[in-house]
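Review box. Two proteins, two foldings.
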Amino acid sequence: MKQEKLYVDSNDIKRGYYVYVHRNKQTSEVFYVGKGCLSRAWDTDNRNGHWEEYVRALTDGWYVEIIKEDLSEIEAFDLEEACVEKYGGHKSNGGKLTNWTAGGESPCSFKFELSFNDFGYSKAYWDARNFKSLNRIELEATVGPLLQSFIEINDELSKLDDGNENAEDVQEDSDYDPQAELSVYGIISLARDLIGRRISWKDFAMNLESELEIIESDFNDLEIASENRKLLFVKSIRLLKEVMEKIDSGNKAEAQKAALETAEKKQLESKDR
């Protein structure tokens, strides 16, 4: 059954993606794992050479099995990667599937993760933290310029790196400060994911808040960096603060307090057991 269409859910995330496998009709063995939407699972165009070679050798043909549907694109990429590993690994790494890569996507795509054990602090903070609601026009008017600004900052960083003829020598120096390596691609990816309806507004806002805190911390810890690089740190912090001021509901301290109370309560409960 083909997935009929993509749609936007109540969190403004585009859904309708799925993960599928191709199976050998004769043996039912999985020989390919993919992520797609609409009729992609049944298409034979734009397949890699390993897939085409395998399919040509089949005597009884192949069939499609949908593993899971109604996914966001990021969820589909994550599941695709897990299934590639589950069913034997990708070809270029010596695996038995006809997939050429491990699936998934760049690690720079974001969703807010609450996976580590902190006695419920992160989840409680997530639940309590609020941001202003923006309609789609307001959202794109806020995030679009931020994206363009950080693309330009990234270009300026690349020029600084390209212009440093002694970059390797600097990194080998005992006084080299690794915090001087300002990374802004995470912010670029966040903005692109939001504009592309791949993450929710709250995922974006929570991660943006985290990115600002990281860059501020790195800047405060700077010991060695060129003036041009320091200026890019300052510019990045200013731009992020401007956006946070536009979207922040002002309840950060309240959310932190509620999260801390939750964590303290759970910590006491764990000691009583």
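Next protein.
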Amino acid sequence: MQLDIVQNTDQFEALASEWNHLLEHSASHVPFLRHEYLRAWWDTLGGGEWSRGELCLVTARGEDGSLVGAAPLFFTQNREGENALLFLGSIEISDYLDVICRREDLPAFLGALLSRLTESDVPNWQVLDLYNILEDSPTLPVLSAAAGGLGWTYQQQKLQHCPY
């Protein structure tokens, strides 16, 4: 699995078709993860919810070059003033966020993702704040295991209830 960092909007835009195709087969398939939604969110930083941010999408490609995973992240200071990586769509605008990956690829993708986020070309973050993941998302237990495997602290909190 080859993981790359996407840091400009032209590269992000070029992913549109294969992004949405992967989303159709993803473990978490919600409209807030569609490329056009996240691109519009990015263009306005959530309608101004965030004053600044740096695009930091992580894409994963299989041996055949196809997109097998995407983590729609951006770098900013979180609400506590810490350097953080957050999901595009965070916090108030989007109800459900997640990584984009088929269920069977989640362990390999999330393990590779966390390792990739420690490399020098990734902004110097302190906290990975992943808001608005559905509480029954298959990502959560896999993410917990991957974080524990690296000796990282993992904490899950219920932010607020969102009706279906």
